Each structure stands twice: as structure tokens, then as C-alpha cells.
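R.M. (postdoc): so does anyone remember the format we settled on? I'll just put the C-alpha cells first.
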């Protein structure tokens, strides 16, 4: 992205510099064309003026010739005067012919000079036009490149905007999930606190039940001991009852003087106390 920005800035700077140079060149070319056009107009005016002067001279010559033709010819009376007049006319004709040739030569030189100058100015104008055309083509190519860079930059901007939108959506989703997570954490913390309270109550209940079990175990032990004692007592009573039943079945009562031994263990009884 930064590379595209750099390329765009460089292209814009180059384009601005080229446009400025093209503007300066165009201005100089316009000034040069204006100067050449002014010179061409001046040369055309000069050529027209020379042509007019030539026409005027020719017109005056023709008018003068016609005037001479219309005038009566006054020939001199003597041959010498006639020869002198012919020589004078020949000299005038030669002078006029030389002036005409000089004027025509000057006109041809000026016309050639004007043609060369016009051709040079035309070549200069064509060169300036070719230069301006080349510069305009370069500007068009640079403009096409700049348009391509701008299009690429626009695509990058659109992609960046889409990524930013996706990032914002992800951030919003993340914020929502974080909020839900915070709520879940708070709920779990409350549940944990409740479980901790319940655990403490259950531990207290367990301790109480342990104490109760110990108490019941002690009572059970005492009860078992009592039961064992009771069983022993019952057994002893049963033995005594059995003895009594046996003694009842044998002899219900005997005088102590008649008893010599124990009826149960058959032990000999000697004294009254033992009996």
C-alpha cells in the first residue's frame, strides 16, 4: 500500500513537472509561432510591396511607352542630331534595361530570401509542433500510467475497506463474546460461590453426621455390649432354668440332710452351708 502511495506521489510529481514544462514549452512555442507569424506577415507585406512597386514600375513603363507612341515623332533635321538622339535613346534604353535587371535581381533575391525564411519558419513551426506532439504523447502515457496506479490504489482501498469492515465485525463479535464470557464467568463465579457455600454446609453436615455416627457407633457398641451381656445373662438364666427344670423333674425338694452331692456337677457336699 505504501509502495503504491509512493508510486502515485512520484507519478503525480512527475506529471505536474511535465505539465509545467509542457505549459512552458507551449507558451514558448506559442510566442515563437506568434513571432514567426508576425515575421511571415511582414515578409508577405514586403513581397506584396515589392510586387506592387514592380507593377507600378512596369505600369509606368508601359504608360510611358504608350505616351511616347502617342506623341508625335519629331525627328531632327540633320543627320548628326539624329545620330546624337539615337545614341542618347540607346543610353537611356541601356540604363533602363540595367535598372530593370537590377530591380528584377533584387526582387528575385528578396523573393528567394522570403521563401527561404518562410520555409525555415515553416520547418521551425513543424519542429515545434512535432515537439509538442511528442510531449503530449508522453503526457498521455504518463496520464495512462497514473490512471492505472489510481485504479490499482482504488482496488487496494476497496480491499482495505472490506478488511476494515470485516475487522470491525470481528471486533464487534469479539466484544459480544467477551461480554457473554464475562456474564458466563460471573454466573460461574456465582455458581462457584454457591457451590462453596453448599460445600461448606455439606462439610458441616458431614462433620455433624460423623459426630452422629460416632455417637451412634458408641451407642451401638454399648448396645452390643449390653446385648452380649444380655445374651450371657439369658444363657445363664437358661442354664439356671434348665437346671431348675431338671431338678424339678428329678426331685422337687430334698431335705438338706438327704443331699450328699450336687445334682448338677455331682460334687460331694459335706457341710450344711455347701448344701
Amino acid at each position: 500500500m505504501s509502495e503504491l502511495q509512493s508510486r502515485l506521489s512520484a507519478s503525480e510529481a512527475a506529471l505536474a513537472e511535465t505539465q509545467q514544462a509542457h505549459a512552458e514549452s507551449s507558451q514558448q512555442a506559442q510566442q515563437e509561432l506568434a513571432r514567426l507569424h508576425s515575421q511571415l506577415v511582414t515578409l508577405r507585406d514586403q513581397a506584396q510591396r515589392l510586387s506592387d512597386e514592380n507593377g507600378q514600375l512596369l505600369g509606368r513603363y508601359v504608360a510611358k511607352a504608350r505616351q511616347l507612341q502617342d506623341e508625335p515623332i519629331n525627328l531632327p533635321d540633320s543627320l548628326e542630331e539624329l545620330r546624337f538622339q539615337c545614341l542618347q535613346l540607346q543610353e537611356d534604353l541601356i540604363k533602363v534595361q540595367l535598372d530593370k535587371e537590377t530591380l528584377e535581381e533584387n526582387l528575385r533575391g528578396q523573393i528567394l530570401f522570403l521563401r527561404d525564411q518562410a520555409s525555415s519558419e515553416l520547418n521551425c513551426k513543424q519542429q515545434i509542433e512535432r515537439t509538442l506532439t511528442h510531449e503530449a504523447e508522453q503526457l498521455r502515457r504518463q496520464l495512462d500510467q497514473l490512471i492505472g496506479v489510481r485504479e490499482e490504489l482504488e482496488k487496494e482501498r476497496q480491499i482495505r475497506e472490506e478488511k476494515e469492515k470485516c475487522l470491525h465485525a470481528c471486533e464487534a463479535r469479539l466484544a459480544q463474546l467477551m461480554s457473554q464470557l464475562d456474564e458466563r464467568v460471573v454466573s460461574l463465579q456465582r455458581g462457584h460461590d454457591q457451590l462453596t457455600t453448599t460445600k461448606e454446609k455439606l462439610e458441616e453436615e458431614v462433620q455433624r453426621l460423623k459426630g452422629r455416627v460416632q455417637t451412634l457407633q458408641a451407642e451401638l457398641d454399648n448396645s452390643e455390649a449390653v446385648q452380649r451381656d444380655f445374651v450371657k445373662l439369658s444363657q445363664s438364666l437358661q442354664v439356671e432354668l434348665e437346671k431348675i427344670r431338671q431338678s424339678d423333674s428329678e426331685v422337687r425338694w430334698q431335705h438338706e440332710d438327704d443331699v450328699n452331692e450336687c445334682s448338677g456337677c455331682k460334687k460331694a457336699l459335706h457341710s450344711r452351708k455347701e448344701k
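R.M.: ...and that's the designed sequence above, right after the C-alpha cells. Also worth knowing: The two ends are 130 Å apart (CA to CA). The helical segments are 2-70, 79-250.
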